[in-house]
Amino acid sequence: MPYTELIEDRLRFMEIDENDIVELQQARQYIEPEIDKMLERFYEHILSYPEFAALFEDEESVRRARASQKKHWLEELFGGRFKSSYFNKAERIGQTHARVGLAPSWYVGSYSKMLTQFIGRICEQAQVEGRSACETVQAICKAVLLDVDLVTHCYLEAKNQAMREVLRRATQFATDMAELSDGLSDSVSKAQSAAALLAGTEAGSAEHTKRLQDLLGQIESVGEQSNAIDTRIGELQFGDRLYIEDDPSTLDRLKSRFSRD
Amino acid sequence: MPYTELIEDRLRFMEIDENDIVELQQARQYIEPEIDKMLERFYEHILSYPEFAALFEDEESVRRARASQKKHWLEELFGGRFKSSYFNKAERIGQTHARVGLAPSWYVGSYSKMLTQFIGRICEQAQVEGRSACETVQAICKAVLLDVDLVTHCYLEAKNQAMREVLRRATQFATDMAELSDGLSDSVSKAQSAAALLAGTEAGSAEHTKRLQDLLGQIESVGEQSNAIDTRIGELQFGDRLYIEDDPSTLDRLKSRFSRD
Lengths: 261, 261
Prior knowledge:
Two copies of one chain form a homodimer. By secondary structure, chain A is an all-alpha fold.
């Protein structure tokens, strides 16, 4: 499905329409002066959890993440800009989360802190102006759920990608083994026939010598098949080590969970 | 971690406190008279999407799902009952979604329809009473995000379980193959030695006859090792067919995606 259709489809499913986009764009003026304080409370909250704190190397990386979030909230979400750049960004965030190992559970939960602050600010302003905050709050909730939806979707896609790769490798290995095993069985059968023929000839005869040569050839062929199996097994283990190093977020944790099973 | 600690942990992270629980419980009286109409609109909306419609066999199964949702919203969420029964239920829902193949993306998106209706009803009532709906709406948003969080978490756990099983089977197969291959190499080496010794004896001598018997024995042993490899490969393929049938939701779709890759 083309990307533009996917965007339309998601917005329609979430019932995000033109009115919501106007609501979001109008809300921006009330959020913008407060966003720094909101993000400060957000990071103070999430960084008190080791699961999050572990994701940031230093103060500088927290600052970078905060600047990127500020841009996201103000320009994308309160900009009402649900275009391909927004979807591409959600995809990158989901992939990053899959790579660093931030489960959607933490991500979804952390939205609570931003959403309640947005609602608080919008309600406060509506009260001052003596109007209902309802439609603005509904629009913000839909946009936040769209965000959650997309990042979760992209996170899962990244994990599925890793799973497909494991399945592909495992399937390829089993297929190669089946093929090598067929070759081996064939060589073994030939060696067995050659041995039976040798046993049936008179020792010292020319035929005996020829049969013995045949048998030695067949045994050599069995040895080659056996080596090929050994080599293929060696490749798999080497390949798996590489693979685990390539994607530690998914597989190392799977391995460690695995070992606790 | 014990379940009770997990609950406390999630509620603390989402900042759902006693005030929120009171807000939710008080909101119930305004939601309850409207919940049937809200759910009617919800199902009308989601069933217009084939991804959802395919999940329900007939009208009766839609009725059952609707009754279960009504109970969930009124008793659990607006009951403010975030106890182990609530967490257990979220776990079952996540597992069911993984089994029937309802991706979190659809699930998260569908919350939009219920949440906006809740907000609409609460704001309407607050306006009648001339008070702010802010804290009630914040409590509902947190509770809905907790719901999204838990079901997504449990869905992912179910998928990880499937992935761990694939890894376990693939690892076991590779380990078994490595062991069988060692046995094969050993037998092949012995057969090669026996063949070399045979070739070195004078045809017709008693030693020649003995060496030939030795070699025939070694070839038989190679045949047994080769058969063991063949049997193990046969088991894997049979086991995989069974496995794919056991969990069509995860693996069949992976397979079909796989084939499109």
